[in-house]
């Protein structure tokens, strides 16, 4: 066991993170409407299927399985799971609310009381153990009706529906939830609009135009949510949520360095600049012009965006990205939504995601230097195959090693001067993978007995990492 310096501040929000659509299950219970995740098939074909132009957003059980329908049954087992989080010592639990549990179609005038009551119970259970809920308002589960009838975030009308939804949450949970996030990994839409924006472009030619138009609608919606949150819940904090990856050039060839720099600007900073600085960055003007992107705006849009920036930046960090201007298919690396070329200096996970804890220190420094607002690492973790030993133990030392090095990197960034609010590692309990719909891609400190084919007892078991993380929290990161 290694020691670190006393780097993490008092009140640091240690915890874990999940998403409603990946663990709740009960997809037709409690008055919930259908959402995007309900029609996403399981298995490694998931991303290809849902990103194919013409995807009809229908369930086809003859061809596919749908693991999100059952998740890990958190809907019925939340008390058991939150008790386990409390046993680890969680200070915070980052979770999301399923939009279609509150507004089943998304465009109703009145919310579904049964859905609201469910989250009341979840928050009450968290607060019983002094666990601070950190709530994502929209996390890859847009109501299916808004996708089919309105075209997802292509439609400006969705701003009104989201504002009504967010305001409903703030009014209902104003005494229970202090920390809010607007849109999960909002910049991921640059690569795959299907998850965050709720549509799959008909052709590659229109992808950028439609994606940035949809993002603009989300920027306005996010700012209106910030306004409402501050008005309804005094002392609340509401942040944006990015997927962040430092982009390295494969070598010192200036052409590759420039390409990596431009990719980093496009992916990492456009959304952050709009939501934190309150304006589109200077480089976006040329990018939009060269790519034929013409964003339709209403007169007050830029004023609203400027007037209501977020309070902090939360982000996911799983890997860095290495780039070169001209690359072949053989050079490509696997990745979380994005992919660059293979970095010869990095090892990779079972799913090909490169492991780079130094990249997290870079990410924290880059974000803090650019924005000077508090940061919050709300996703980070290792998806791996776990094995139950003959004695019933799950010795996931590889996960402990991964998390230890990333927590060390966070500590170094605090020494560098970064203001870091907390750390909620991803998938603190095993859940359905977002990118592949697999249960075998496990992230948790808690093992859930469920397999890719849907079989299993759903029994919860503590892994070795459970006890390790328990001690990390108890020592405020001093013992790693």
TrEMBL record:
Q: Which GO terms describe its cellular component?
A: cytosol
What does the UniProt keyword field contain?
Glycosidase, Hydrolase
List the Pfam families.
Glyco_hydro_1
Q: Name one GO molecular function term.
A: beta-glucosidase activity
Question: Active site at which residues?
Answer: 379
Q: What highest taxon heads this organism's lineage? A: Bacteria
Entry's InterPro entries?
Answer: GH, GH_1_N_CS, Glyco_hydro_1, Glyco_hydro_1_AS
Q: Biological process GO terms, please? A: carbohydrate catabolic process
What the record says about family reads: Belongs to the glycosyl hydrolase 1 family.
Protein known as: 6-phospho-beta-glucosidase
């Amino acid at each position: 066991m290694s020691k670190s310096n006393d780097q993490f501040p008092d009140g640091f929000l240690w915890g874990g993170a999940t998403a409603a659509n990946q663990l709740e299950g009960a997809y037709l219970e409690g008055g919930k409407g259908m959402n995007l995740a309900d029609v996403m098939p399981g298995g490694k074909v998931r991303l290809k299927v849902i990103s194919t132009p013409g995807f009809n957003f229908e369930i086809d059980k003859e061809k596919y399985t749908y693991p999100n329908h059952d998740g890990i049954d958190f809907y019925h087992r939340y008390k058991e799971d939150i008790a386990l989080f409390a046993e680890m010592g969680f200070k915070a639990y980052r979770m999301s609310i399923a939009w279609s549990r509150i507004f089943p179609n998304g465009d109703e005038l009145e919310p579904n009381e049964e859905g609201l009551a469910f989250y009341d119970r979840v928050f009450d259970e968290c607060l019983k153990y002094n666990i601070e809920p950190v709530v994502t308002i929209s996390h890859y589960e847009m109501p299916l009706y808004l996708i089919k009838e309105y075209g997802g975030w292509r439609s400006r009308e969705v701003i009104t529906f989201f504002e009504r939804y967010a305001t409903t949450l703030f009014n209902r949970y104003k005494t229970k939830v202090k920390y809010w996030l607007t849109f999960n990994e909002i910049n991921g839409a640059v690569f795959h609009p299907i998850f965050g924006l709720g549509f799959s472009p008909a052709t590659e030619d229109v992808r950028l135009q439609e994606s940035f138009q949809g993002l603009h609608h989300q920027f306005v919606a996010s700012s209106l949510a910030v306004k409402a949150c501050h008005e309804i819940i005094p002392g609340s904090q509401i942040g944006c949520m990015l997927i962040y990856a430092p982009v390295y050039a494969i070598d010192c060839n200036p052409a590759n360095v420039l390409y990596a720099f431009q990719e980093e600007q496009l992916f990492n900073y456009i959304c952050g600049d709009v939501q934190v600085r309150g304006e589109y960055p200077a480089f976006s003007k040329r990018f939009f012009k060269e790519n034929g992107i013409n964003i339709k705006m209403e007169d007050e849009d830029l004023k609203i965006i400027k007037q209501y920036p977020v309070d902090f930046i939360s982000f996911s960090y799983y890997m860095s990205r290495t780039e070169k201007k001209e690359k072949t298919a053989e050079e490509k690396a696997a990745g979380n939504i994005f992919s660059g070329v293979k970095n010869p200096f990095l090892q990779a996970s079972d799913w090909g995601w490169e492991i780079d804890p130094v990249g997290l220190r870079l990410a924290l420094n880059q974000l803090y230097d650019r924005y000077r607002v508090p940061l919050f690492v709300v996703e980070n973790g290792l998806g791996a195959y776990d094995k139950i030993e003959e004695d019933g133990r799950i010795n996931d030392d590889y996960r402990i090693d991964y998390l230890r090095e990333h927590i060390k990197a966070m500590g170094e960034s605090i020494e560098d001067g970064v203001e870091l609010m907390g750390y909620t590692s991803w998938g603190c309990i095993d859940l359905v993978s977002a990118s592949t719909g697999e249960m075998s891609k496990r992230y948790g400190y808690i093992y859930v007995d469920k397999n890719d084919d849907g079989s299993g007892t759903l029994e919860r078991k503590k892994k070795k990492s459970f006890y390790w993380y328990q001690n990390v929290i108890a020592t405020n990161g001093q013992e790693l």
